[in-house]
TrEMBL record:
Highest classification ranks of the organism: Bacteria, Pseudomonadati, Bacteroidota, Cytophagia, Cytophagales
Residue intervals passing through the bilayer: 12-29, 83-101, 122-149, 155-188, 200-220, 267-283, 295-314, 320-339, 351-369, 389-408
Keyword terms of this UniProt record: Membrane, Transmembrane, Transmembrane helix
This protein's name: 4-amino-4-deoxy-L-arabinose transferase
Length: 526
């Protein structure tokens, strides 16, 4: 056989392996460091769990066992290496891709699904992070996957759905966004007079058993079966990311147009728009598999739009784009399923075109010209005539930002240089003075630097500068990682007045800037 015949015979395996290799390669070369926030807790909690020092407590993150126990096992085996620990996220993505690829029936659908799943920038960004949202990608996909064989294997389907929900819920509570999905599929089965009683019975029995065991655990552990609910309520306190405390206008904005602008700003809009033909056809024809994925997306969308972050009062959850990565594989599957529909339906094509132009307009209004251009090019590609050229063009336009994002994030974060400079300051033999560092660097110290003896003696958060100055040390070093301007702009309040705080008692002797890191040495005035 010639090369074209070999490809025609093995195209499915080639596309599958290409996707798996791409994910592995992106994980291997796309690591840009930790995020200095939630992932630090999960890494430390995972390490402490396997060392026997971690237990469930009143902090709501401590009950997210799925978020830190698997990653903690890698830390336990290989030491505190955030990149290696994120292999859990890689495994979750690989399994998700395998499951959904298997469900796609047509050649073009498999290719289109692969392209759209493997190129969403936010999804790929958390591939190299220890975040529960990456594991929820698998949990959501697994629930939908299990639901597709409920007529053939009702017990296994019910078991798979319950396992997916349980693992998701003990990983992160946003799994509840999919909570209406079982209700929707049961309703559609009932309407079509195709409801499988054995599936319904198994689903109710297994779900009830798991819920009772879960409540009994907290009753035994804390004396309150609803302790978990209380800890979640306590963990979602009033902050800059809440709405209920800011008046009805804030709430109205949140449940009206803010989700749409978030979809556009965070590059989810094209995935939603191009999935519309697949969703429309699935709801119209009730086609198996496509219907389940459409209902899953609608469930997630309703949950994201209206779900409350606490049960004490209605406060819509913060529109964190990280939460939305769970919808990407679902949308990619629907894009693959509906790819032919818009190419043969002019009305559908113009609907997609109109919505993409709306996305462009929103981006222009936000002065986000890169996103506007990206969406504009995708809209233009709708009208390419040759199918193969069109698919190749879509592939190029989608994959280019994903690849370019690697270098962009690395340059923005300058993470290796941060580690080198921090080690240089800590290990410098003549430097015995305290070092003022960004608050988030101090919080992440146990992950960034393995030698805790050095850290405990030297590193001081900038918010404690006043207390350090009062000790009247001969020398104070200030280590500022300017990435804070991008990720933690609120630290400006502590960093800007730092020089004026030091000036009365200390004089700047020397300083240097290396990439994102600035180090200044202050000595006590005579």
């Amino acid at each position: 056989m010639n090369e074209s015949e070999v490809f025609a015979k093995n195209w499915s395996s080639i596309v599958l392996w290409g996707g798996l290799i791409f994910l592995f390669g992106y994980w291997l070369f796309g690591f840009d460091g930790i995020t200095f926030s939630d992932d630090v807790y999960y890494l430390l909690a995972g390490r402490d769990f396997w060392e026997g020092k971690m237990g469930t407590n009143d902090y709501h993150f401590s009950s997210r066992w799925g978020a830190y126990i698997p990653a903690g096992l890698i830390v336990h085996w290989f030491g505190m290496n955030p990149h290696w620990a994120s292999a859990i996220s890689l495994i979750a993505y690989l399994i998700t891709f395998l499951l959904l690829f298997r469900l796609q029936s047509e050649k073009e659908g498999k290719i289109v699904f692969s392209i759209w799943m493997l190129t969403q920038v936010y999804l790929l960004h958390f591939l190299t992070k220890v975040y529960p949202d990456a594991l929820l990608v698998l949990c959501v996909a697994f629930v939908v996957f299990a639901s597709t064989f409920r007529f053939q294997k009702p017990f296994l389907a019910a078991l798979g759905i319950i396992i997916g929900f349980f693992v998701g819920m003990v990983t992160k509570e946003t799994m509840i966004l999919l909570g209406t999905f079982p209700i929707l599929i049961l309703y559609f089965d009932w309407r079509s007079k195709n409801l499988k009683i054995s599936f319904l019975g198994n689903l109710i029995a297994l779900g009830t058993a798991v819920i009772i065991l879960y409540l009994v655990y907290f009753w035994w552990k804390f004396g309150d079966p609803f302790y978990r609910v209380s800890s979640i309520n306590a963990g979602h306190y009033v902050s800059e990311f809440t709405y209920a405390d800011k008046g009805w206008k804030s709430m109205l904005r949140r449940v009206s147009y803010l989700p749409i602008t978030t979809f556009v700003e965070r590059i989810y809009w094209p995935w939603i728009v191009f999935a519309i033909p697949g969703i429309w056809n699935a709801l119209k024809t009730k086609k198996p598999i496509d219907l389940e994925f459409s209902l899953a997306f609608l469930s997630l969308l309703i949950g994201f739009w209206f779900m409350s972050s606490t049960l004490e009062l209605y406060n819509p959850i913060y529109l964190n784009p990280r939460h939305l990565i769970v919808i990407v594989p679902i949308l990619a599957f629907l894009i693959g399923s509906g790819w032919k529909a818009w190419k043969t339906n002019p009305k559908m094509k113009w609907t997609i075109m109109s919505l993409m132009i709306l996305g462009v307009a929103i981006s222009v209004f936000q002065n986000d010209w890169k996103t506007a251009a990206f969406q504009g090019v995708l809209a233009f590609l709708l009208f390419l005539q040759k199918s193969n050229w069109q698919l190749a063009a879509f592939s190029f336009v989608l994959i280019s930002p994903a690849i370019l994002a690697i270098q962009y994030q690395k340059e923005l974060k300058d993470y290796p240089n941060l580690i080198n400079e921090l080690n240089r300051e800590l290990l410098y033999s003549e430097n015995q003075s305290s070092i003022l560092v960004n608050n988030f660097i101090y919080f992440s110290r146990e992950v960034l630097i393995p030698d805790q003896d050095l850290i405990d003696k030297k590193l001081i958060p900038v918010e404690s500068a006043d207390s350090l100055i009062q000790t009247a040390q001969e020398e104070i070093r200030v280590f500022i990682y300017h990435y804070y301007q991008h990720a933690y702009p609120q630290e400006e309040e502590d960093i800007v007045p730092l020089e004026s705080l030091l000036e009365p008692s200390y004089q700047l002797q020397e300083g240097r800037v290396n990439g994102q890191v600035e180090v200044n040495v202050y000595r006590k005035r005579n």
